[in-house]
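Intended use. Records like the one below are meant for learning the mapping from a protein sequence to its folded structure. Do not use them to infer anything beyond what is encoded.
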Amino acid sequence: MKRLGNLWPGVIERGNLLRAFHQAARGKRQKQEVRRFAEDLDGNLDRLRQEVIERRFEIGKFNVFMVYDPKERTIHAARFVERVFHHALMNLCEPVLERQAVFHSYACRKGKGRLKAIDAAQNAARGRAWHLKLDIRKYFESIPQERLISRLHRLFKDPEILHWLEKILRGHRPEEGKGLPIGSLTSQHLANFYLGPLDRFCHEHPAVKAYCRYMDDFVCWGDDKAVMIALGKEIQSFVEKELGLGLKHPPCPQPTGRGMDFLGYRIFPSHVELKRRSKVRYWRKLRLLHTLHEDNMISSKALQERLTALTAFVLPVRSHGFRRGVMEKLRSAAIGHEPGEPGRQLEQQREQLPRREPQQQHPGEHEQQHRVSPGPQLRPTGWMLPS
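Structure written out for the chain above:
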């Protein structure tokens, strides 16, 4: 592997720093720290450049908080000025890391992404009898920092590039010597890069007929169950010995025709569905948005924006019937009835109607039927689900 140098001048070049600012500020222009930085943009970029050149720039000041959906994780959000520096660094380092990736690695890469990974997984499932789906246990928290630094030294030879990459890595949990901060741009790219040897091991293995990875979730497809069992043991040994990591679950091949949970979906050779947990999450989030809007805690515009982002997850698969059912439940709840009760309410209204004596029809009159007055009208919620 040829080591690459002469990248550092491009990192601290003024145009690259300005570009990094716009990248870091995308979608965050209204935040106070972004506005303050933009008020004196030239001065702040000059100050950042000088501190970096003199190695005085402080790394590792995070805003730490917890998220619990879809699972509990600790997020380390860097200061805005540090995010600008991360973008400036990755603008030059990312193309180098990209050249080390195999085709079927889909996370944190331009032109790839979650939807491409789903399509690739469905295509790979067609015509293959067995699949072996695996993921790394607590991946970001478990990456050995020194092993990653050693691999970076075999890739880059710029002393300043290596200095700042090492400082970023060792600035997180230095007492343990492992782990990358979740929420950092550099962490995403370096974590993806660290599993490159696993990609090549699986991709080149004769038992693997197709392969796909999205960060620490990866799948191998094959034709023979016994061969796939042996492959699982080899992968487990490789992950432990070569990467210093562990698998979340023991390898166990499954029939491809039964479907596979992957990135929030259930993938079959013929189609893709939402998995059950994703449906539950969607319903809970939608109900929360509905409540916030009804209580005037968010505006209609903010509601529609968040609703659009939420629905974007379910649109790529067959989900129209599911979304329509969710909306019907919300409409029922809006008039004070549990889902499924409007029909029962109508029957109750019929029973409560005053009974009349039969009237004698006059000649020439058509038979008249009593009409039941409609129940309470559904109160408009002020928003609708994107189609």
